[in-house]
Amino acid sequence: MGLWQWVLDNWALVWTYLYVGIDVVLRLISLVVVPRNRRPGSALAWLLAIMVLPIVGFPLFLLLGRSQLPKRRLAKQKAVNRLLRVRAHEIPDSELDEDAPSWLQSAVQLNRELGAFPLTGNNSAELEIDYETSIARMAEDIRTARESVHVLFYIMGLDEVTEDFFEALAERADAGVTVRVLYDHWGAVSHRAVYRAMREKLDAHGIQHAPMMPIRLFRDGAFQRPDLRNHRKMVIVDGEIGWMGSQNLIAAHYDKPANIRRGLHWQETMARFRGPIVSELNLLFASDWYYESDEMLDEQTLVRPSPDTSGTYECQLVPSGPGFVEENNLLLFNQLFYSATRRIVAVSPYFVPDESMLSALITAARRGVEVELFVSEIGDQFLVFHAQRSYYSTLLDAGVKIWLYRAPTILHAKHVTIDDSVSVIGSSNMDMRSFLLQMECSLMVGGTDFMEKMREVEHTYRSRSRQLTREEWESRPRTMQVIDNLCRLASSVV
User: Fold this and answer.
1) pLDDT for residue 66
2) Distance between CA atoms of 457 and 128, rounded to whole angstroms?
3) Residue at 320 is within a domain
4) Which of 62, 87, 185, 328 fits as disulfide partner to 320, beta carbons 3.0 to 4.6 Å?
5) Which residues contact residue 151 at a Cβ distance below 8 angstroms, ignoring those fewer than 6 apart?
6) How much is the pTM?
7) To which H or E segment does residue 394 belong?
8) PLD phosphodiesterase domain: from which residue to which, for each copy (predicted)?
C-alpha cells in the first residue's frame, strides 16, 4: 500500500522514468531487429524513424516493417510456385530468332529460373491505349466465350464506363459459361459505391468471385502487413485470348469527385494476346484463384494447344511479389538495362528505384545508351510523386531525357523497350512497392513487329509530353527541393 501511494504521489516522476526506459529499450531492440535481412537504405530509414520518436516509430515498424507473408500463407504460395513449375512444363519451349542478341537468352533463362514460365513462340499481339476502347474490346471478347472467362484486376467497380463489361460477364454466366472474378480487397473496396454495385451484379448472376489479399491483420494465424496487395490486371477468354497491362477496370477518373473537378484522368496501355502465351496467363490466374479460394482448377482447362499459332512473337510471363524469393521484376529490369547497347525507353507512373536500378540506368546513360524516362507532369500520390522528383537531378546529370506527360492526365502505363530487341509490358511500376510488396505481372516480348507497335505508342506519348530541361529543374523553389528529399527518405521505409 505504501509503494502504491508513493507512485500516486510521484506519478509525474514515475511516468518520466517509465517513458525513458521504454524509449531506451525500443531503440536498443530496433538496432538488432530492424537490419535483419533488410536492404541498407530501408534499414537506415526505419532506424531514423525509430530513433526520432521510438514510441511511434517502433509500432509502425511492427505494422509495416515486414514485406513477407505469414508462414502459413507463404507456405501456400510456395506450393503454388512449385505447381506452376510443374504445369509450365506442359507449355512448349520456343527458341529465339537467330538475329536475337546473345544477352537476350540470358534474360530468358533468368525469367525461367525466377518465375517458372518458358519462352513461347508463335504469339500475336495488339496494343490499345484508348481507355474506354480497351474496356469495350475486352467486353467484346468476353461475349465470344464458350467455356470460361477469367478476370483479375487490382481495382474493379461497376460504373457508367464498365457497365457493358459486367453485362458481358453476366450474359456469358447466364449462358452457362464459367466466369471467375478476382479483385484486390483494398483496391476495390476503397471505391465503395462502385464496388458494392459490382458485387451485387456478380452475385445476381451467380458469378464466382473473391477478394485478393483480404485485409485481416491476423489471417492464417499470424500478423500480415496490410499493404501487401495483388496489383495484377488480366482477362483470359477460353484460354485463347488474353489481355494484360496497366489498366484497372473503372472509369478513367476513378469515380472520385476531386479527380472529376480537376479534370484528372488516367492514360493506360493494354495488350491483347493470342497464342501459347495465353496458357501462361491462365496458369497465373489459376494460382491466384487457388491462393484465395482453395480451389485447384483442372490443368486440362488451363494449358491447351492454342488454335491460333500464326503469330511471330516470342513471349515470356514474369510473375513477381512477396511470395517469391527474389524481386523478379527488379532483376529482369536491371538485366535488360545493363544489356542495352543503344536505347532504353521506360514508361512508369511511379518511378522510385532502388540503388541497383538507379545505378543500372545511370551506367547505361554514361556509356552512351540513349535513355528516355516518361513520367507524369503532376501526381496523384503526394509521397511517391515528390520522392520520384528527387531522382531527376541525378538522371539529368547522367544524360537521361525525362518526358513529363502533360496535365491533367496521369500517365499510368508501365512498359520498357530495349534497343530494337525486346519489350516488357505489364502491371509493375518501377518503385519499391512493386518490387517488394505487390504481386505483379510482367510480360517480355520479342519481335521487331511488336517493337514497332511499341515505338508508335512511345511516339504518341512523346507528342503529349514536354521534355524537362536542366534549367527548368534547377529553378524550382527551394521548398520543393526540401519536400522532394524528405519524401525520398520516407519512401525508403518499406
Assistant:
1) 67
2) 9
3) no
4) 328
5) 169, 179, 180, 181, 182, 234, 235, 249
6) 0.89
7) helix 392-398
8) 226-253, 407-434
431 with 351: CB under 8 angstroms? yes
Per-residue CA distances from 300 to 146, 239, 467 (Å) = 15, 10, 50
pLDDT above 80 for 86: no
Name all contacts of 102-106 with Cβ < 8 Å and 24+ positions apart: 103/339, 104/339, 104/421, 104/422, 104/446, 106/335, 106/339
pLDDT grade for 43, boundaries at 50, 70 and 90: confident
End-to-end CA distance of the chain: 48
- Domain with 429, as residue range(s), is 328-491
Clarify whether residues 342 and 477 are in a common domain: yes
Least-confidence region, from 12-21, 116-125, 477-486: 12-21
CA atoms within 13 A on the CB side of 65: 20
**Do both 414 and 436 map to the same domain?**
yes
Question: Rounded CA gap, 226 and 67, in Å?
Answer: 10
Judgement on whether residues 250 and 340 belong to the same structural domain of the protein: no
Q: Looking up cell 518458358, which residue turns up?
A: 118
Count structural domains, the chain.
3
User: Do 226 and 147 fall within a single domain?
Assistant: yes
Cβ-contact 275, 86 below 8 angstroms:
no
The answer on 155 and 184 residing in a single domain is yes
Q: Give the pLDDT confidence of 283-293 residue by residue, as tens digits.
A: 999 989 988 88
The 10 Å Cβ neighbour count of residue 126 is: 13
The phi, psi pair for 344, rounded to 5°, reads -130, 125
d(CA 289, CA 180) in angstroms, rounded, equals 8
Considering the domain architecture, whether residues 274 and 397 belong to the same structural domain is answered as: no
Residues 145-175: tens digit of each pLDDT: 999 999 999 999 999 999 999 999 999 999 9
In this structure, the answer to whether residues 258 and 345 fall within a common structural domain is no
Structural domain includes residue 105: no
What does the pLDDT read at residue 219?
Answer: 63
CA atoms within 13 A on the CB side of 169: 27
Report the SS3 class of residue 470: helix
Taking CA atoms, 152 is separated from 270, 291, 423, in Å, by: 14, 13, 23
Q: How many CB atoms lie within 10 A of CB 75?
A: 13
- Look at residue 111 and tell me if it is in a domain: no
Ranges 14-23, 102-111, 127-136, 432-441: which has the least confidence: 14-23
- Cβ–Cβ under 8 Å, residues 94 and 108: no
Q: Does 115 fall in a domain? A: no
- C-alpha cell belonging to residue 150: 477469367
